[in-house]
Amino acid sequence: MLIITSEFDAIRRKRCIFALNMPRHLLIVNPISGTQSKHGLPERISARLAEAGIDVDTYVTTGPGDATRRVRQAVDAGEYDAVLACGGDGTVNEVARAMCHAPIPMGIIPAGSGNGLARHIVIPVDPVLALDAVIAGQVCECDYATVNGRPFFCTCGMGFDAAVSDRFAASGKRGRMSYVRSTIVEFAHYKPEHYVLETPEATLHRDAFLVAICNASQYGNNAFIAPQASITDGLLDVIIIHKADALRTMMLGLDMMTGLLRNNRLVETLRVPRLSIIRDPGPAHLDGEPTGDLGTRLDVQCVHGGLRLFVEKDKAPFRPIVSPLEYYLGSMAISLHIK
Residue 26's domain is classified under what CATH number? Predict the structure, then answer.
């Protein structure tokens, strides 16, 4: 085994493995994720992997929970050397739920609207180019988190962002512009809520616009809610945002897209391995998918190194403004097929 590098300098001390022989993978495809047609995509993925000597069995999901059921069945039977999730963050969540502590790795093939976890680990948003990480075979043992026993892999949110997720899901429309419309409509009447946060160090009382618990750095679409978050450090970044007037809230959005959110005076950041949150009943989301009411007490914990992921060879340290710009230009180049 060859120990190699991945996320930030700390990853050089993590257990990353260069896998040499992975002849058979299970490909999970969500046909309705994102806004783009998946017609012909499984065939292109299979052909690219076949060139690398990897056989692929494809499973197309038919509804919520289907991916988790099929992957759990495959893991229990020991049928495959890896499982690949082709879809958005909701699909990634469903597949990863069944991959926690599995002996085989998981690959992400972005095909959704936001692709938050894929972007965090610098997987190209072009589905075929994303296969390079799978073919290279670099695997990293990454963190995930649970809230009241339910796993999430990117972010868990309550407050304003959860209300937006509910509105977005109810609209029945996907894509960035639909999400922006949902955000504007919800902002017009949303009121801060009271939260009690119990951490290993202190108990905090906050009236907050939103509270986000982040394993990874972004919601998706390069919206960096926790720019310095790491999926290998055993810690969660808890972001508390206080409400302000419309202008200062707009600046929050700009700071989020440039990676400067941590410097905003309306933002409070905690880094903890676990915490409990007490609040009034209300919506929440896991990896951008509405969960309904999780109850008035949420017990959240980081599970260190519990998910094996194919990752890109190296991830440079995050730099505000510079890193988001690089990510945007890279995504634009891929979408225009000039890369």
Answer: 3.40.50.10330
